[in-house]
Amino acid sequence: MGVTPAARLLEVIAGFGRRRVAVVGDLIADEFIYGQLDRVSREAPVLILKYDATQVVPGGAGNAANNVAALGGRVRLVGVAGRDETGDRLLEAFQPGVSVAGVARPRACRTPTKTRILAGGIHSAKQQVVRIDRATTQAFDRRTRQDVEGRLLKAVAGCDALLVSEYAAGLVTPALVGRAMRALAARGGRRVPVLVDSRYALLAYRGMTACTPNESEVEHLLGVRIDDDLRTLERAGRTLVRRTGAAAVLVTRGSRGMALFEPGEPTRHIPIFGSDEIADVTGAGDTVIATVTLALAAGATYYEAARLANYAGGLVVMKRGTATVSADELRGAVERDR
After folding, report:
1. pTM above the 0.90 mark?
2. Can 38 be counted among the known catalytic residues?
3. Which among 156, 188, 217, 232 could disulfide-bond with 213, CB atoms 3.0 to 4.6 Å apart, if both were Cys?
């Protein structure tokens, strides 16, 4: 009797713990300020919140790295953080499986920060009321870029996969990723998977193993509107495969699930896992690409990696804030869905 699809997915998850992943990208501090509703101000028609607590967690490439570590992988993180209090708190917030030795901290850099203020009552869930973004794009000098490139080439020397997480902060470029890919190719042996997540410039990257854009990003890149139109989705997916040269394109579609495109293969549509009553989509894309990266590093097919990412995505959107999924949670989802 052959191995069942569910058993095969469990085998892949079991291999996560032996995989080393280099993650390069834009590090962002996700700051959450929690407060209780107190009253309406007499100065203006705004709410006054009674302060509860502040939490700083890794966002951007940092969240992708934390997701890889939560699933059991070992991460070599490469990026830039400021020499400020926020940068200190950011680096302290990484999971034990993330090495931050590859994070440069130039004097002129400020740590990019997204501050979300959440309000609610004592017995109700807190909801986001406003977000404040600081230093999310910066100019990096030649010395900083050379430093980051050196750290990246060192990180990929012994890795099983490379995950690129570019949030348009100005640090990660197609040229930088191209040099890392050439270094990986020069190693010989088994091809190392290279995954790219680019918020606005995916079409500038070429020859990656796979990418995982969400539907709204695809619409923005190609100037189309998809919604429930599967013909438009099919054309868009095939266009991305052709223009990026990727071996696989996984389009995440929220409550509509995912669509996997591979050259010469029929499109695979994967329905959403779990409930469509979503709690929070913050960082869900990081969870998806982290899962696909680890799965491919562990020997999964593109379809197996997409299925595991679908489970992980369905789990993480039920959590509030910038969250991760553990290998045990992922394993439990596969077993419940047999």
Report:
1. yes
2. no
3. 217
